[in-house]
């Protein structure tokens, strides 16, 4: 009875709110919170928690003392009457699988790693050159989530688990639920949002508790149990397991104190989430020489240090078409602020037909003494972002590649994947920029024109008899691998290879295959190219940017910026000992660049000669000029 | 903008020179002799002849030899700088970099030094000390310092000499100041524009100067033949 009144009150309130909103707005489809009223104050979200509805039913409100206690659904709670979930789903964070979305500039891929088969391979649902589609290596939606869902905000592939090509997974999705967009992952203002903790969001995703993941992240909820092992007929609304079963289905426990009047919840929601929300998936850290990743050792991005939030530049509207912030993004995005939100947009007001420089108190750079050719040839980030260039790149980690911030994340410095940076290379825009680099390592089949990775189960089966536990690295780095091992694995893979194809191993920029005598043939191949993606953060302050010292920050014959090297990363020592020079990645002439750098030795002399010449010319002009003035004066005086 | 201005100015100057040459050129026979007939190697000889006309006559002395050498060196630098400076801009429509920039930056200080040296060595010779403007001297009731009659194009050459000297100053300073950390991007852009336009002016003056020098020499040769 009590619940009936509450439900009726809820329906009435929502209906009234909807009617008033519809009356006030021009878009009849707009939901309560779709169109903001313009207030910059924080709107308090005092709302009921709603559960995932049964098919063709309205969602039910959740009560902490109900039996069973259900997890709340973000789609129902946030997207029910207030925010258009479907429109939000078109945003950049959720649209990777949509083939109609322009992939834009290459970004960080998902990197599948498996130290037992010496594999690190870049994956993306977007058409970024150099990446592979997850299904190419046999990753079904659930297996993809097993590996990467920990640091996905839900949606995308998380809501496709029921459409898996694996029928067992489709059935299992009834038990696990879908991994809905976790609005709290970005918009929670609570310091207790548990994304990576031992009972938090990421762990729930790994346990395939998709339906419970967002709830588990909340500061007022606790989830225990695992959906992954449950039978496919398990119903979370009527949880029943045979007597004696050792399986522990997911259960929710809410803090009763969090539920107020009518059992509504006061959510701490921020339109622009704090940086910690972004950091969970977008942290970067350099690996120190001793293999540690001490964050106190590094400064934050200068923008954050200055008090900005990530969302100050990376903005979006209801469609969540967030600004990535690269030059030229306006060609790929409908977000009207893309131009004015890039480095140049804020700091220079470039390409905007009204003055916008200095937005968010961005200082307009003076670039004293920097010849303007630099702005044609280099990206802003090449001088301002990432680590100061050394003779060789350093290892780095990212949250998404190394599961940073998640309980149980491997902390060793050389854990796979091995990312190298800062790599100064020519980008797709023709400018030299700073990149992170991954040397793909994977087993593939090669035809005349293409190389396609082999699915990981096949590789594991072929490699398990060759790369044994003794060869595994304790730090989850490359296993001990010899050329003989590769011959054996390629032979194993070749026995199942289709006609016209041959197995190959890509590593460290080389393509390894078996020659006719069953010996390893190593060759350069475009299929073995490194995968690089441009970086922007962390931005250093102007006083630490390249060129602040002098031209010799870059223009010397041993500068890391131009003549630095990128070691080829591989389990094979012979390949790992080789390196690629940045000058090759910059597509510059070695002779011209070396000569140019060398010429800077004479620059001071050239300057001196030019200055002295100017002084002499000024002297001659002044001397004869004064003579002329004297002559005119004399004429005027005589006339007088 | 600059590209269009440079192309227009160069074309205008070359057309002007051609028209001027047609009007004021000495007769072929006066230069090469009456009975001269064309021979196979004559085109090469002609080129060589024109080049040697640029060897402005000097008295044989150490200073004279130095002047000649400096003039030739300045001419060589000028040609290289014009090629390396204008070709990337006019034909490829971009700022100079790479080999173009290296060659340009190497010869630029040499050219600046040559200009400075020639300024010292030639300034006195290029004073307006003859009766170039009789009407003006009459009006001022004064006698010119030298009583020698000015030669044809002498006044024009002297004026252009001073114009070259004046335009060389912003050209050198705009290039060199940009390499010091005194100016920001906006001013560096301005300096680049100053460098471009002062260089364009200097180039045009230098081309006219060389042309008039050659024409004067041709006329002098013709006078000698006569």
Structure description:
The complex is a heterodimer of chains A (640) and B (226). In chain A, helix 16 crosses helix 17 (483-495). By secondary structure, chain A is of the alpha+beta class. Chain A has a 5-stranded antiparallel sheet with strand order 7-8-9-10-16. In chain A, strands 12-11-13-14-15 form a 5-stranded antiparallel sheet, covered by helices on one side. Chain A is flat and about 125 Å long. Helices cover 28% and strands 13% of the residues of chain A. Chain B is built from 8 helices and no strands. In chain B, helix 1 packs parallel to helix 8 and helix 4 runs antiparallel to helix 5 (99-122). Chain B is globular and about 60 Å long. The mean pLDDT of chain B is 83. Classes of the chains: A alpha+beta (640), B mainly alpha (226).
Give the tags.
heterodimer, A: 640 residues, five-stranded antiparallel sheet, 18 strands, B: 226 residues, mainly alpha, Fumarate Reductase Cytochrome B subunit
């Amino acid at each position: 009875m009590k619940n009936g009144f509450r439900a009726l009150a809820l329906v009435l309130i929502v209906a009234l709110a909807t009617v008033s909103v519809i009356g006030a707005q021009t878009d009849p489809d707009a939901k309560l919170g779709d169109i903001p009223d313009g207030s910059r104050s924080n709107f308090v979200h005092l709302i009921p928690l709603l559960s995932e509805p049964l098919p063709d039913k309205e969602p039910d409100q959740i009560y902490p003392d109900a039996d069973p206690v259900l997890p709340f659904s973000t789609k129902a709670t946030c997207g029910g009457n207030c925010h258009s979930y479907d429109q939000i789903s078109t945003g950049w964070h959720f649209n990777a699988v949509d083939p109609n979305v322009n992939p834009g500039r290459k970004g960080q891929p998902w990197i599948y790693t498996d130290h037992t088969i010496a594999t690190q391979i870049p994956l993306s649902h977007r058409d970024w050159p150099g990446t592979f589609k997850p299904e190419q290596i046999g990753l079904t939606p659930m297996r993809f989530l097993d590996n990467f869902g920990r640091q996905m905000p839900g949606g995308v592939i998380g809501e496709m688990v029921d459409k898996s090509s694996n029928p067992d997974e489709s059935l299992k999705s009834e038990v696990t639920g879908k991994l809905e967009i976790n609005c709290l992952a970005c918009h929670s203002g609570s310091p207790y949002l548990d994304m990576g903790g031992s009972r938090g969001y990421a762990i729930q995703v790994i346990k395939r508790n998709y339906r419970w993941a967002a709830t588990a992240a909340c500061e007022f909820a606790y989830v225990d149990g695992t959906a992954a092992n449950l039978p496919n007929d398990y119903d979370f609304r009527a949880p029943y397991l045979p007597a004696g079963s050792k399986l522990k289905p997911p259960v929710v426990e809410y803090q009763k104190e969090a539920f107020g009047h009518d059992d509504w919840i006061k959510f701490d929601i921020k339109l622009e989430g704090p940086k910690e929300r972004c950091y969970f998936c977008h942290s970067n850290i350099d690996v120190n020489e001793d293999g540690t990743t001490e964050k106190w050792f590094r400064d934050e991005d200068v923008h954050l240090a200055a008090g900005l939030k990530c969302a100050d530049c990376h903005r979006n509207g209801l469609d969540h078409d967030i600004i990535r912030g690269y030059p030229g993004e306006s060609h790929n995005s409908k977000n009207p602020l893309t131009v004015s939100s890039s480095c140049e947009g804020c700091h220079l007001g470039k390409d905007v037909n009204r003055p916008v420089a200095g937005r968010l108190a961005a200082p307009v750079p003076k670039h004293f003494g920097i010849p303007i050719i630099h702005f044609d040839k280099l990206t802003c980030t090449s001088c301002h972002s990432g680590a100061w260039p050394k003779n060789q790149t350093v290892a780095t980690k990212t949250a998404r590649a190394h599961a940073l911030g998640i309980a149980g994340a491997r902390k060793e410095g050389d854990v796979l994947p091995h990312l190298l940076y800062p790599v100064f290379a020519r980008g797709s825009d023709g400018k030299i920029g700073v990149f992170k680099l991954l040397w793909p390592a994977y087993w593939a089949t090669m035809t005349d024109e293409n190389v396609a990775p082999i699915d990981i189960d096949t590789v594991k089966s072929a490699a398990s008899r060759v790369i044994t536990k003794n060869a595994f690295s304790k730090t989850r780095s490359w296993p001990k691998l010899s050329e003989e091992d590769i011959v054996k694995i390629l032979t194993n893979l070749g026995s199942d290879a289709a006609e016209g194809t041959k197995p190959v191993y890509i590593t460290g920029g080389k393509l390894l295959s078996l020659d006719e005598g069953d010996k390893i043939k190593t060759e350069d191949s475009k299929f073995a190219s490194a995968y690089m993606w441009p970086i922007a953060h962390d931005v250093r302050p102007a006083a630490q940017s390249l060129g602040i010292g002098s031209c010799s920050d870059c223009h010397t014959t041993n500068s890391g910026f131009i003549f630095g090297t990128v070691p080829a990363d591989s389990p094979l020592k012979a390949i790992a000992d080789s390196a690629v020079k940045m000058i090759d990645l910059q597509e510059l002439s070695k002779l011209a660049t070396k000569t140019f750098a060398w010429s800077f030795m004479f620059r001071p002399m050239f300057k001196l000669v030019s200055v002295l010449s100017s002084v002499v010319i000024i002297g001659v002009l002044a001397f004869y000029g004064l003579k002329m003035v004297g002559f005119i004066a004399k004429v005027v005086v005589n006339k007088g | 903008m600059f590209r269009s201005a440079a192309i227009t100015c160069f074309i205008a100057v070359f057309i002007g020179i051609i028209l001027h040459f047609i009007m004021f050129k000495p007769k072929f026979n006066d230069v090469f002799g009456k009975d001269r007939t064309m021979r196979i190697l004559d085109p090469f000889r002609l080129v060589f002849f024109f080049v040697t006309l640029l060897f402005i006559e000097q008295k044989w002395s150490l200073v004279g030899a130095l002047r000649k050498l400096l003039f030739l060196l300045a001419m060589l630098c000028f040609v290289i700088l014009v090629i390396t400076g204008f070709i990337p801009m006019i034909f490829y429509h971009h700022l100079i970099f790479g080999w173009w920039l290296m060659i340009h930056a190497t010869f630029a200080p040499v050219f600046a030094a040559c200009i400075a040296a020639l300024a010292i060595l030639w300034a006195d010779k290029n004073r307006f000390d003859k009766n170039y403007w009789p009407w003006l001297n009459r009006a001022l009731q004064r006698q010119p310092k030298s009583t020698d009659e000015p030669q044809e194009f002498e006044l024009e050459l002297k004026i252009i000499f001073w114009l070259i000297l004046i335009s060389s100053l912003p050209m050198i300073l705009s290039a060199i100041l940009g390499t010091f950390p005194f100016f920001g991007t906006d001013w560096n852009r301005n300096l680049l524009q100053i460098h471009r336009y002062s260089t364009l002016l200097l180039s045009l003056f230098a081309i006219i100067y060389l042309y008039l020098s050659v024409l004067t020499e041709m006329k002098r040769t013709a006078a000698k033949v006569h």
